[in-house]
Task: structure prediction
Amino acid sequence: MRPVKSVGSVGSPSLLRQINSAAVLRAVRQAGPVSRPEIARLTGLSRPTVNDVVDELLRAGYFLERPPDGSTDARRPGPRPRLVGFRADLGYVLGLDIGANKLLAVVADLDGRVLASERRRAFDLSGADEVLRAAFETARAALGRAGVATSELMATAVGTPGVVELPSGRITLAPQIPGWEGLPLAERLAESLGRPVLADNEVHLALIAERWLGAIQGAEDALYIQLGIGIGAGILIGGQLYRGATGAAGEIGYLPLADPGSSPPDGVGQFEHAAGGRAFIRLGRRAAASAKGALLREMAGGDPASVDAEVIFGAALQGDPVARGVVEELVCRLARGVATATALLNPAVVVVGGGLSRAGQALLEPLERAVRDLVPVAPRFVLSNLGDEAVALGAVRTALDAAHDSLLTYVRQAM
Amino acid sequence: MRPVKSVGSVGSPSLLRQINSAAVLRAVRQAGPVSRPEIARLTGLSRPTVNDVVDELLRAGYFLERPPDGSTDARRPGPRPRLVGFRADLGYVLGLDIGANKLLAVVADLDGRVLASERRRAFDLSGADEVLRAAFETARAALGRAGVATSELMATAVGTPGVVELPSGRITLAPQIPGWEGLPLAERLAESLGRPVLADNEVHLALIAERWLGAIQGAEDALYIQLGIGIGAGILIGGQLYRGATGAAGEIGYLPLADPGSSPPDGVGQFEHAAGGRAFIRLGRRAAASAKGALLREMAGGDPASVDAEVIFGAALQGDPVARGVVEELVCRLARGVATATALLNPAVVVVGGGLSRAGQALLEPLERAVRDLVPVAPRFVLSNLGDEAVALGAVRTALDAAHDSLLTYVRQAM
Result:
């Protein structure tokens, strides 16, 4: 006889009321403010059951019923039904993006509506304590602007570079921020912001945001590629973020796809060194310093050392063959890593985000073409449309999920 | 307001009986013949509920109750409880492995007990029709030995190289077997074997077998690497096989990790060409033909062209530096691909199977060491222990799941 794990506890009739309440909560959480007939449709519950559950959650103060929006639906004349949503002042959530060069804090209510945000550049920070202090100040500024007290936070989530151990929220690998490695990030933030604080890798959260509000809403199997100074990937499987056995899934920067001409410094992965933002600028500056690099030099104000990604894409857009060669070389290097992830994972769609994605179709089209040449089954390519807010919005979504889960626990205990 | 998918239909009280029956069926299917108290423990159901459901399934003829095995449990004196299992003659399943050079058919009962198998080499077959005919003959021989009629088959599953589209079971990519590409494999087999026939990629099924009976029983996040003439990978996520958006997940042979000295022929992926069984033999024969390759030549009967994997590993085991160099070169090439998959997926464990894995620790240890040097977070490495029966056993497990699902449907309809 083979060993077997428990297949899970199942059913007494009282469990049904909890299942029904959970289904209604989930529908309102996923759909935002929504009418009772729509809840019945989304949950498959009968109208009387929906009414029972909604009335109970209204009485308990979790839900609020409000008139519909001003717009009328021409296809369905007559009065439109009222909308059921979370009571907005029941609590709030905070999403934080602690990056290698920026801080962003976003405050939202339980319906996922953004109330305020605060942004700060963080190039000048050194050491974990200084970064944590700046992050807390950024969060406090956003909370202040939203008129939300720290005590009203139901949950906080934070995205950051590196590998984050779950559920502890400890950073286990992070060459990007000095002193970050080994930091119990979630615990340290909870000291000032209260519990729970959930920490995760920034690319994981960006993927969650793209699926929630961005370029791949409702996708099942997708790959998010973040192209910036660092290179990272987020893996969506069956509509869920895949974190890996120890939170390190998607560490595409470490792929053994080296730049034959140059070895990476300590802590930087081979693929990131060969195809990341720094490699792009290295290639651009070398080209600008060459005899044929006149346009690149000119657009960089005469100094090859001032060439950046914007200058290279700008010159390429003007038809400069040297700049185009640089973009082609980068695309060729990037394509090997993206093709690798595609051959392994067979995603339906690849979303490209991060700083380099601001180049838009000038990057996406040649990249898609190059990947298609390398893999047996090619996915669709789309650009991220959340810009550099993706990580903070993914943190908001993660904090919302935690807040909704704790609501569900209260409701269960009350039944 | 954001669009939202249905969150699933939930509950009426009659649903509870179905949930309970499904839980009991699942426990018996996962644990094999099992006592009523054990079913209660596995499902979390009360003893009276378990008795109700089991009695109903005994009356309906799905279950059979039998005395316990002869052995006694010293820790628990007194009579041991009777065991509940599927009625063995309720129906049978067939697992088929249609490989590039072998056919294997395995017949099992609904408890997963293997009743008979039949093996045949298939080097000499050309064309899809001939392969299909030989596969059917192999299946018929196994069924005959088991005393099972085709009409008693509740489900068949088949593993084969290439990309298999689901749920149709059509082959969309298969350079390994001439005429295989485009073949509606499941449909063609169903003409002789009856429905349902489920087809899937051979490496996917090998992974299912390793989790069922092999080296990674009960694993959650794992990677299966098949090293033979071809190179393939199977991805286990949350205890489930991940097939990808179109069934092509794990096509690691197509990773863009080329052998710099040699281009792959049409249809063969770069990584497979650089690090597969043929590359190993190519390297070994070249070494055998060199001045220092005396031992390799001798062990191959004097002819460098007769060097194969066994000869190379054998000479390396005897300490021959030339053979050791060949193994080192292969391991170095393989490690890049395995490191790639590991960096992306962060599995807890990597299982190595396929023909080359017969070399055992002589391959596994240096491979593990080389991968560890390339990735930030290293997994555990283990050898497959199902040998070349893994694909057929994975097919048996897949067919069992389909048979059990159809049983569940009958039970639901009867309630």
Observations:
- The first strand of chain B starts at residue 34 and ends at 35.
- Chain B touches chain A through 73 residues (CB under 8 Å).
- Confidence is low (pLDDT under 50) at residues 1-13 of chain B.
